[in-house]
Specification:
This protein has 2 domains: about 5-30 and about 295-405, Alpha-Beta Complex (Aspartate Aminotransferase, domain 1); about 45-295, Aspartate Aminotransferase, domain 2, CATH 3.40.640.10. The relative contact order is 0.17. It has helices at about 5-10, 40-50, 60-80, 95-105, 130-135, 155-160, 185-190, 210-215, 280-295, 300-315, 345-355, 365-370, 390-405; strands at about 20, 25, 25-30, 90, 115-120, 140-145, 165-170, 195-200, 220-225, 235-240, 255-260, 265, 320-325, 335-340, 355, 360, 380-385. The radius of gyration is 22 Å and the shape is globular. Helix 2 runs antiparallel to helix 9 and helix 11 packs across helix 13 (about 390-405). The chain is built from 13 helices and 17 strands. It has a 7-stranded mixed β-sheet, with helices on both faces. The protein has a 4-stranded antiparallel β-sheet with strand order 13-14-17-16, with helices on one face. A two-stranded antiparallel sheet has the order 1-2. It is about 40% helix and about 15% strand. It binds 4'-deoxy-4'-aminopyridoxal-5'-phosphate. 4'-deoxy-4'-aminopyridoxal-5'-phosphate binds next to helix 4.
Length: about 400
């Protein structure tokens, strides 16, 4: 394990780790659903609400000006974190809103019969918006199949491409299995075929370096709550050359340069895409959370989480009947497994009694879990984050073993 990684200090940054569940110390292994929040981010958030409340971009008074500056600094923090330009960063309320935004705003450029490719690994948030616009505009939605390992079948992707393909919407990391897709290979092929690309970074943002310049996609989305920030804030990154063509999907205050009784003129990007009072405090807190991550270092985080995952995989694979889905080499911080004859929700409930939080079921990825992998018992998903330690991994493996002895 990395010597650079001060796990004791990091754990002390997260007060929630000190609580007990049913008299057991909390072991939080559900960070893929949402991460815990560091005290310094929450302290800054409460300081904003207690002493700095104002609305932004509107008033001449000092409080408003200060908060407007903080909000734009948060945008700068996000831009730096993903190596983007500031005007390419649009604040939304989360990944789901960001994808719906692109689907609603961009679909008008597709003609009837145009094709969208997504993968079988996608979260429902990266499926339903495309199903909706496919129905509304007469588009064709195609799914890249998985291999038996759970990894995507690249050859199947290339076979799906036709002259009518307009968009590829692909997750960087599967929230259900933790598999990281080799997205650059997909992007290279898509570019050659003039296909626009949307990347879902919701699950990868907290442990993999995201560099939109290197990736060279057209849209990238993620949520703040998966990277130590509050809920209610997300990001839609749009490549600069598309900002002018993209239509705001909602309109209102704060996004115009002028309005008369019949019409309005839009403000420049990104403000034209942020109608109404934005989630000001949440956006500023996201900026602080990203600084927190930067101080630890994403490569350190990646290496640390991978070392925990390796130990977790090793422990679980020794338990009779446990089947881990997806090769270890393709995953960083998620281990999902099935046990023959045992429903995942029974495992989840028994672990919960011991203070261990994991997620069970279909993980908002029903087409993957049920249709593609044919799993009817749900998956037990253990997801790791920066604050987990080896003792927790060992305790979890031990508890899974005991649960299964009780259930079989
Ligand atoms: N995509 C992926 C890969 C996710 O993991 C999630 C959250 N589980 C989402 C999309 C949706 O994110 P949100 O609920 O924050 O909008």
């Amino acid at each position: 394990m990395s010597n650079l990684y001060d796990i004791k200090k990091i754990r002390s940054d997260f007060p929630q780790l000190t609580i007990k569940l049913k008299k057991n110390p909390l072991i939080y292994l559900d960070s893929a659903a949402t991460t815990l929040k560091p005290k310094e981010v929450i302290d800054k958030l409460s300081d904003l609400y207690l002493f700095k409340t104002a609305n932004i971009h509107r008033a001449a008074h000092e409080l408003s000006q200060n908060l407007s500056t903080d909000y734009e600094t948060a945008r700068e923090n996000v831009a730096n974190f993903i190596n983007a330009k500031q005007n390419e960063v649009i604040f939304t309320k989360g990944t789901t809103e960001s994808i719906n935004f692109v689907a609603q705003s961009y679909a008008k450029y597709f003609s009837k019969g145009s094709e969208i490719i997504i993968s079988s690994l996608e979260h429902h948030s990266n499926i339903l918006p495309w199903q909706n616009i496919a129905k509304e505009y007469g588009l064709v939605l195609k799914f890249i199949k998985c291999l038996p390992s759970g990894e995507l079948d690249f050859n199947h992707f290339t076979s799906l491409i036709s002259k009518k393909t307009k968009l590829l919407a692909l997750t960087i990391c599967s929230n259900a299995l933790g598999i990281i897709n080799p997205v650059k290979d997909y992007i290279n092929v898509a570019k050659k075929n003039k296909i626009k690309i949307l990347l879902d970074a919701a699950q990868s943002i907290s442990s993999n370096i995201t560099d939109v310049k290197k990736l060279d996609a057209d849209f990238l989305v993620f949520s703040g709550h998966k990277i130590f920030a509050p809920t209610g804030i997300g990001v839609l990154w749009v490549k600069e050359n598309l900002l002018e063509t993209l239509k705001p999907y909602q309109v209102g205050g704060g996004m115009i340069s002028s309005v008369d009784k019949n019409s309005y003129a839009l403000a420049c990007a990104p403000y034209r895409f942020e109608a109404g009072t934005p989630p000001i405090v949440q956006a500023i807190s996201l900026g602080h959370a990203l600084n927190y991550v930067k101080n630890i270092g994403l490569q350190n985080i990646h290496d640390y989480e991978k070392s925990l995952l390796t130990a977790l995989d090793e422990g679980l694979s020794k338990i009779d009947g446990v089947k881990i889905i997806g090769p270890l080499k393709s995953r960083v911080n998620i281990c999902s497994f099935t046990v023959e004859g045992v429903h995942s929700s029974d495992i989840g409930q028994l672990l919960s009694v011991q203070g261990i939080c994991v997620r069970t079921g279909n993980h908002c990825a029903q087409p993957l879990v049920v249709e593609e992998l044919g799993i009817n018992t749900g998956l037990t998903r253990i997801s790791l984050s920066i604050y987990n330690n080896l003792e927790e991994v060992v305790a979890c493996v031990d508890s899974v073993k005991k649960c299964l002895e009780m259930l079989r």
